[in-house]
Amino acid sequence: MLNNISLQGKRERRVIFCFLFFPVVLLCLFGIWPIVNLIYLSFTSWNGISESKEWVGFANYFKILQDPTYLTIFKTNLYYLVSGLLQMVVAMYFAIILSFKTWGQSFFRASFILPLLISGVAISMMFRLFFTGEGAFDQLLTFLGLEKFIGMWLGDPERVNYTLAGISLWRNIGRSFLLYLGAIQSIDPAYYKVAEMEGATFWHKVRYIILPNITTVLTLDFILLTIGVVSVFEMPFILMNGSNGTATVLVKTMKLAFDNKKFGMAASLSVLLTLVIALLTIIQRYVVIKRERRQL
User: Which GO terms describe its cellular component (predicted)?
Assistant: First the structure.
């Protein structure tokens, strides 16, 4: 009896080993090894071509943290952070409004989701034409009697980051809208009926029913927003090629590696970017866990 149990245990371990072997090997080859290699490169000076890599220690990190040129690109990402926070507020507002019976409900829902279905390249080319001098946007301003605001929306360094952040908001608002709408519609309708019987106003329903029930989705969206903000790439690269003060951290990383042949610096910037994402995620998780413990 004991021998049979022992034999069965060995067979189960073999089956588990067979199922896990290839996924673990693939994870090590394409997941862990590239990360280890990236960290190693961040401590070297390498042009990406020569066989030798010069070990420079933390010199790349010190240069990034002390050079104002590199600190500026982190500030550029702040435009997208503000845009993302505004995106959450606007998406929340319309998700609440459109979760109830409203005139043109289907049309407005589709309007928010449509930008998600268009590729980043197509959106970039569309807005390049839209903001061209004497283009559709200038004509719209003229029609509205706002000629004094006509200018170089993609050529003026003072305006271009606002323009790109606005395009980012328009493109990504559908994601937040879908998350919030799905969470609101999953709330039990009985809560609303009981609230109406108690004489609750619309604001009371939002404050005491909707917001407490979609906290998890709000947290998820904020984490996605944080990751999206520090990894902005498509819009500034396709529309501006990172020029005119529009280079974000990811665009600068790519240019360092493939234009300037500074793979060591690019690796250091990538490692710093990863650490920023990890730190923000840990802070968010800490805040969420602390709040959940208070509610218990």
Answer: plasma membrane
